Amino acid sequence: WNGSESVNPSLIKQKSSTPMFYINSGNWFGNISISSLNYVQKIGNYNNRLFLKQAEINDLEFRVDKPSDDPVSQFSAYAFQLGFGIARKSEFGDIGIKGSYLYFGIYDQVADGLTFDVGFSKLLKNGIGIGVSILNLGYMSKLYEEKPKLPIMALAGISKELSFLSAKSRVFSTIEYSALNSIYKIKTGADALMGPVRMLGGYSITKHTSEFSLGSGFNYGRFGFIYAMNFGSQNIGEPNMISISYRMP
User: What is the 8-class DSSP label of residue 16?
Assistant: First the structure.
């Protein structure tokens, strides 16, 4: 399993005794700007995560059915998500759940709703980890005349910890199924730590598309930094992301 709490809430973990604070910012496919704030803290036997996410695109155009050089107007689409996740270790493995309030709009129409994620993971012998999760369960209000469909996904993955000299790494493979468009995605990648330096890489493929990602970063005292880029076969942009973390006193 690739160790990402964004795809499995059971992986919400806080190894240190003090809370962690994360700031993420970047661009996704189609020039969508994204940003998020995350706060992770362990209280007793529970790992807790509070998060705020935002996504926006500002260059959508409104045009009539007649060809023209200029649009009638421009407008934006946006989304806002506020949520909380909790994970706990049991004798069977780690169990987690995440809930959030989602609000989004396009032009002069808006909708909101609640979403839920559930996940399970377990670390086996010889550094092998397994995990399963279901994401984006929930309910949405109507947007204009119809209720938006949430992109429900089911994921299952396996990972293996490796050590070579002073480097520690985790390689993983995940299969993802999207119920919205009935498409499977296979992902594979690695996350390597060499002293304070961190290197990441991944590849994913579906029936119609493929993506390749690279990232690097470092840890310095209480601070951490990661920069990553994604290259896709769709030719609709090259997503990039900056993540800054701080271990609080």
Answer: S
Largest CA distance in the chain: 66
The structure tokens listed for 165 are 């000299």
Nearest to 229 by CA among 34, 28, 23: 28
pLDDT value of residue 197: 94
d(CA 148, CA 141): 7
User: pLDDT tens, 172-220?
Assistant: 999 999 998 889 999 999 999 998 999 999 999 998 889 999 999 999 9
Q: What is the mean pLDDT of the chain?
A: 89
Instruction: Identify residue 6 by its one-letter amino acid code.
Output: S
- Closest by CA to 57, choosing from 28, 80, 27, 33, is 33
Tokens of 249: 């006193």
- For the CA atoms of 243, 150, 29, 218, what is the dihedral angle to 10 degrees? 20
Phi, psi of 94 (to 5 degrees): -95, 135
> Is 129's pLDDT higher than 70?
yes
Tokens of 157: 């993955």
State residue 201 phi and psi, 5-degree precision.
Answer: -155, 150
Rounded Cα distance between 121 and 129, Å, is 7
Decide if 28 contacts 55 (C-beta within 8 A): yes
| Six-digit token string for 28 | 């996704």
Helix (H, G, I), strand (E, B) or coil at 10: helix
